[in-house]
Design goal:
By secondary structure, this protein is an alpha+beta fold. The chain has five helices and six strands; from the N terminus they run ααααβββββαβ.
């Protein structure tokens, strides 16, 4: 009886000390949108390269204002690059809508204080950010997709360019981060669990 009680206490202490595992994909080529979506959903294959390519191709077929075909069209497609990824906002929105999510652009004039980060009803699934980046001494300019997600009450930066997920100390730090990156030209997209 005493031994059974001791084992139960050991199990309780193990569960208290158990570190929350957070799924985090690392950057590969220009597949940051793919990594951001999988990090957002906390699942390895929530989306695959094939899924996103199919969505991008469908967007081209459905586009009433199709551009002219050129030999470069084989690589540089309207919504992505066939070899490296580099998917655009249209692919992000279509992919999330397929999973029953809704995307709202955050109005930067409202500042991050207008975002309900403590959402008790779990309406806010997470945040996807599109950040301007400069590499190679400013010779290459592009944009990078990053996901933020609240997991077990803690907000995480799930940027595929960082080695591991980074936890924010509180929602105020998340707001400060969002305000700073918006001031730097980033676009903030709120991903909701309810599609309307």
């Amino acid at each position: 009886m005493e031994e059974e009680e001791e084992n139960q206490n050991k199990n309780k202490s193990k569960s208290k000390n158990k570190i929350q595992e957070v799924y985090h994909e690392r950057q590969r080529l220009q597949f940051c949108l793919l990594h951001s979506l999988n990090n957002l959903f906390q699942e390895k294959d929530a989306f695959t390269r094939e899924n996103l390519n199919a969505i991008a191709e469908k967007l081209v077929v459905d586009d009433p204002d199709k551009g002219k075909w050129t030999p470069l069209s084989v690589i540089f497609k309207p919504h992505h690059n066939a070899f490296t990824g580099n998917y655009d906002i249209n692919v992000l929105i279509a992919a999330l809508e397929e999973k029953g999510k809704r995307v709202n652009w955050h109005d930067r004039r409202s500042r991050a204080s207008s975002i309900d980060l403590d959402d008790a009803g779990d309406k806010l699934m997470g945040i996807v950010i599109n950040i301007p980046v400069k590499k190679y001494g400013g010779l290459w300019r592009g944009r990078h997709w990053v996901a933020l997600r609240k997991i077990e009450g803690v907000w995480y930066n799930l940027d595929s360019d960082i080695a591991a997920p980074w936890s924010f100390k509180d929602t105020e730090e998340v707001r400060e981060y969002l305000d700073a990156i918006e001031d730097g030209g980033a676009e903030v997209l709120l991903v909701s669990n309810d599609k309307q």
